[in-house]
Design brief:
It contains nine helices and five strands, in the order E-H-H-H-H-H-E-H-H-E-H-E-E-H. With 237 residues, the chain is α/β, with parallel strands linked by helices.
Length: 237
């Protein structure tokens, strides 16, 4: 029996294509940094370098620490000088990027049905954003942070997708039995690796991502609406 469902956010509960989203919001962030004298090319290169540092994080530091250590070296600017401005950006201009997404009420319906049945839900979104940015994207999706037992952000996590240790960190934190869990996501390369831990998966096809053309190995796949139909049939706990 499934007692716990881990959900990806971007492209899953919040329909979008990652490339469109990044291409929309990065120029907004770059504009905020112009006053620091960091050229746009250098800035964007530094952001991607920081992302790489988080993706390859070995668990000895948080993703937040990994990002800023790398960004400082790449951009030649100190965290203390720009962090307040960065967080203010994610509280404000970042919200314009909702235009690159396609929110659907089905996401909220899926969460509501699961909670009514006593099934716990966790937001297993790749923890490469500050908490404030993640909370905003949750709101874009028409959801509430309180809907979830846990929300992964760069402040609290030590690994990223597709590293299996990212998923293991969630399971270990809540002492979850993998056999009682399902991961719902839209990215073949980032979400399906959780199967190595014995967690079943549902691949959402509305905004399917498979940049590397990997073979699709999942227990279930279909649209978000088909997921809704499926969870309606689940037994309550």
């Amino acid at each position: 029996m499934i007692r716990h469902v881990l959900f990806d956010l971007d492209g899953t509960l919040l329909p979008m294509y990652q490339e469109e989203f990044v291409n929309y919001y990065l120029p907004l962030l770059s504009k905020r940094f112009e006053k620091y004298g960091v050229g746009r090319d250098v800035f964007v290169k530094s952001i991607w370098a920081g992302l790489g540092a988080m993706v390859t994080n070995d668990g000895r530091r948080t993703n937040e620490q990994a990002f800023w250590e790398c960004f400082e070296k790449s951009a030649g600017i100190g965290r203390k000088e720009v962090e307040e401005d960065t967080l203010d950006f994610y509280e404000n201009e970042f919200n314009e990027a909702i235009a690159s997404t396609r929110p659907t009420p089905i996401a909220g319906q899926v969460i509501e049905i699961l909670k009514q049945k006593g099934i716990k839900v966790y937001l297993a979104t790749n923890p490469v954003f500050p908490q404030c940015a993640t909370l905003n994207r949750i709101r874009w999706a028409g959801l509430c942070a309180e809907d979830f037992e846990w929300i992964t952000t760069y402040e609290t996590n030590h690994y990223c997708k597709p590293n299996v240790k990212y998923f293991a960190e969630i399971l270990d934190r809540f002492r979850l039995d993998p056999k009682e869990c399902m991961m719902v996501g839209n990215d073949v390369g980032e979400d399906l690796p959780v199967r190595a831990l014995g967690v079943r998966t549902y691949l959402v096809t509305d905004c399917l991502e498979n940049a590397r053309g990997l073979p699709v190995e999942t227990e279930k796949m279909g649209t978000l609406e088909e997921l809704l139909d499926m969870v309606k049939t689940w037994q309550a706990i």
